TrEMBL record:
Keywords: Lyase, Pyridoxal phosphate, Transferase. Belongs to the class-V pyridoxal-phosphate-dependent aminotransferase family. Csd subfamily. The keyword Lyase applies. One of its GO terms (molecular function) is lyase activity. Catalyzes the removal of elemental sulfur and selenium atoms from L-cysteine, L-cystine, L-selenocysteine, and L-selenocystine to produce L-alanine. This is Cysteine desulfurase. It is an enzyme of class 2 (transferase). Its cofactor is pyridoxal 5'-phosphate. Pfam families: Aminotran_5 (PF00266). SUPFAM superfamilies: PLP-dependent transferases. Its EC number is 2.8.1.7. InterPro entries: Aminotrans_V_dom, Aminotrans_V_PyrdxlP_BS, Cys_dSase_SufS, PyrdxlP-dep_Trfase, PyrdxlP-dep_Trfase_major, PyrdxlP-dep_Trfase_small.
Length: 442
């Protein structure tokens, strides 16, 4: 049995197989066949599928309300603006924040770059005043972890390159867990920013946000949370987590591509200099200077992702109505089913927490003697869709002694039988490729 997760109400039950079966009827793509086999979609960690309500919400916007927002007085423009801002309210409520604390971006990567470049603008003194709190200089430090997705690593590398600050990272132990004793040593008065993932897209672990936030608070560092792999799968309240900023993407939580969001404390957002500038984010413009709107508009220059925001709100409603705690418990069970089944196969190494340890419904693994791309191709022939490669986490793979892995990731529409089909298929891979069992001699 999977242990009770550390979050949530212990009285809330997981989704059962019958409910999942009904949920699957809402996802048209899941009814197809691949290579004559029913599609087994185990790549939701990369991109989730969309229920009809999300598809219909975006289509209905284009059919009934398509217009620019915040810049027209005609009927369609008013309706479009209302739909756009209603969507912001819905998604803000989904993650426990105020409407003016949620900024629309193209995706989480764009959100992290927005933060890094805004801090960079503060560092060169373009904004002055309260923006100085975000300015970095030589001697300052930005701290990340060794498990970060490239999206939460490279922007900070570049920020440090531009400002002269130093980038450091919290290392991992051999099992892939954060070395918290090293975190305590590395977080010092020099630390200005602590940026880390809530749950790894490779390891499936759930990092101790409260512990890390507590360490950062002691030295006055800003905390930035990458919630790409938690917003779709765990009940979230960014206020309760006490982070200063957080990012997530729509396409991983049943929404469309082309939209993500940044959460930031209102007082911080309004002190930050903008990143992108142009129309829709100004109050007054002369030939010599411009004055900017308060957040969130000051960070939403140009034409906004309007239909995508409406569709993302429909996705948030779908998840809320299903129940995020029930989804999380279901995926915790599927994660245990994955790690237990895969760990029992000779020659298969599962990355991250082992059986019985807390993890999300995701498992990356290595099949000894068979390259991850060959594993993925073999599974695809059986209609099983997984992710292969380094999953935009090369330093993490390097730390674990690998160049690539295969990742299976579940969601609220994944059945127990699909997990079992994957495990059975992986058990046949080494014999198929003629790879000897570990320790065998010729």
């Amino acid at each position: 049995m999977v242990s009770t997760p550390a979050w949530g109400d212990a009285q809330v039950s997981a989704l059962d197989d019958d409910e999942v079966g009904r949920i699957r009827n809402d996802f048209p793509v899941l009814g197809q066949e691949i290579n004559g086999k029913p599609l087994v979609y185990l790549d939701s960690g990369a991109t989730s599928q969309n229920p009809r309500s999300v598809l219909e919400a975006e289509q209905e916007f284009y059919e009934q309300r398509n217009s620019a927002v915040h810049r027209g007085a005609h009927h369609l423009a008013v309706e479009a603006t209302d739909a756009f801002e209603d969507a912001r309210s819905t998604v803000a409520r989904f993650v426990g924040v105020e409407d003016d604390e949620l900024i629309w971006t193209a995706n989480a990567t764009a959100g992290l770059n927005l933060l890094a470049y805004s801090f960079s603008n503060a560092s060169v003194g373009s904004a002055g005043g309260e923006a100085g709190r975000f300015a970095l200089k030589p001697g300052d430090e930005v701290l990340v972890t060794e498990m970060e997705h490239h999206a939460n690593l490279i922007p900070w590398q570049e920020l440090c390159r531009r400002t002269g600050a130093s980038l450091k990272y919290i290392p991992l132990d051999d099992a892939g867990a954060l070395r918290l004793e090293e975190a305590a040593r590395l977080i010092t008065p020099r630390t200005r920013i602590l940026a880390f993932t809530h749950t790894s897209n490779v390891l499936g672990n759930i990092n101790p946000v409260g512990v890390l936030v507590g360490m950062a608070r002691e030295v006055g560092a800003l905390v930035i949370l990458d919630a790409c792999q938690s917003a779709p799968h765990l009940p979230l309240d960014f206020k309760a987590l006490d982070v200063d900023f957080a990012v997530f993407s729509g396409h991983k939580m049943l929404g469309p591509t082309g939209i993500g969001a940044v959460y930031g404390r209102s007082e911080l957002l309004n002190a930050m200099p903008p990143f992108l500038t142009g129309g829709s984010m100004i109050t007054t413009v002369t030939m010599e200077e411009a004055q900017y709107l308060p957040a969130p508009q000051r960070f939403e220059a140009g034409t906004q992702p309007i239909s995508q925001a409406v569709a993302l709100a429909a996705a948030a409603n779908y998840l809320s109505e299903t129940g995020m705690q029930r989804i999380a418990r279901r995926e915790a069970e599927l994660g245990q089913r994955l790690v237990t089944g895969l760990s029992a196969i000779d020659g298969v190494r599962v990355l991250g927490p082992g059986p019985g340890e807390e993890r999300t419904g995701l498992a990356a693994f290595d099949v000894a003697g068979v390259h991850a791309h060959d594993v993925g191709q073999y599974l695809d022939e059986l209609g099983i869709a997984v992710r292969v490669g380094h999953h935009c986490a090369q330093p993490l793979h390097r730390r674990l002694g690998l160049s690539a892995s295969t990742r299976a990731s579940t969601y609220l529409y994944t059945t127990s039988d699909e997990v079992d089909l994957l495990v059975d298929a992986v058990a046949r891979i080494r014999p198929y490729f003629g790879v000897a069992a570990p320790g065998a001699t010729s």
